[in-house]
Amino acid sequence: MIMQQMSKALGSVRDAAARAASTVSGAVRGSGGRGKGGESTASPEAGAAGRSGAVEKATDLQPEDIRRQGPVSGRRVGWFLAHVVWGTEVIGAQHVPATGAVILAANHTGVIDGPVLVGASPRPSHVIIKKEMFKGLLGKGLHHWGQIPVDRRSGRSALKAALALLEEGRVVGIFPEGSRGTGSVAKAQAGIAFLAVHSGAPVVPVAILGTRPTGKSVGHVPKPRTRLHVVFGEPFQAAEVGAGSGRVALQTAMETIQARMSAHVDAAAGLTGVGLPDEIAPESVEEADGANRAPGAAGEGKAAGHEIRVGRRMAAPPEAVWAVLTDLEGAADTMRTITKVQVLTPGEYGVGTKWRETRTMWGKEATEELEVTVSEPPHLTVVEAKPGKTHYTTSFTVRPAGTGSQVDIRFGAWTADPTVARRAVWKTFGAIGARATKKIFAEELDDIAKAAQERAGSE
Q: What is the pTM of this model?
């Protein structure tokens, strides 16, 4: 079965609006060349003391401004918040290497994710945090605890500081999504790829769950003793040895990190029984943090888009559901909106499988080329499409549920470096498109359930 990449989900209304507004110019993009990290030659603590006001000027940040011993006391504060103020269960802490450079890559749904990550980590860590938090008493505390301020307009200085810390064998935390949202990691920015490629440090995926329930804003603070979960995954190398550090290497690393993190978050949700918050309205999507834009890398700038999640119980085992999901040849017979499928890479379904899919929706026919980027039978598959500047990602997660299965679809549509006109279109019509897409996904889950149940009954 095909993984839907609803490239026409907003319909002709959005496209017409985009064309009408296309005369509005001005790409929203950061600037600057490629930065290079290096080890600090000055005394870190002395440098930080001598530049007490520099921490709030994130664009002027120097590696020596970050207090090296700060995370030791910062971890104590984080531990108190995570385990005393809230009730945090930590799973998989043994996956964090005991020594050497490590990048902690966490999903991001709520305002307390930062301190919870610091408190759950088995090692003191420097976390990249937006510079707006470095004000007043809190700002002094963050500086004292060795955290890294980032300017949203350009993350070059923050990345240089983080790279220097990694080269010293320290732990750096980052939220690759760039801003608070559903936490599904349907997209990842380039900053973490820059750090992974240039430092060679292993990446440990981290799923933070429970910090923001559905219906709450991204600024929500949970009540005391709220049950939270932090799940550390196995470390992995985002870049192959000898792959270089150019744009291709960065793009490959970014895609690897996004896929591994997305799969880890889904697995953690299944393990803990705590799901992610549902869709976040397009107008609520925050601008991505500057640290998630690699210096000089493609995609340096803002993003606009939406994410949705739809789920359904099915009276069929995961193996039967998986057989339907991966039956590309039979997709047109199974799904009500699919009229044709052309498989481009014959063979078993797996990473790298490509096909063209033609759908008819709202009286219009559209064809898109899709590619499998994650395949973990019979529980998870992710398919992506990149027509133009918009990146579509759809994941299907299949979990055992009694004698049947729980099937969840997560769909994300994001436009990198949108023009002012495109951002306006997303804000105006995005919610309408998201609701329409969610309805179609719900109908397609019904189609999948019917086919899977028939298949299970015939076996």
A: 0.58
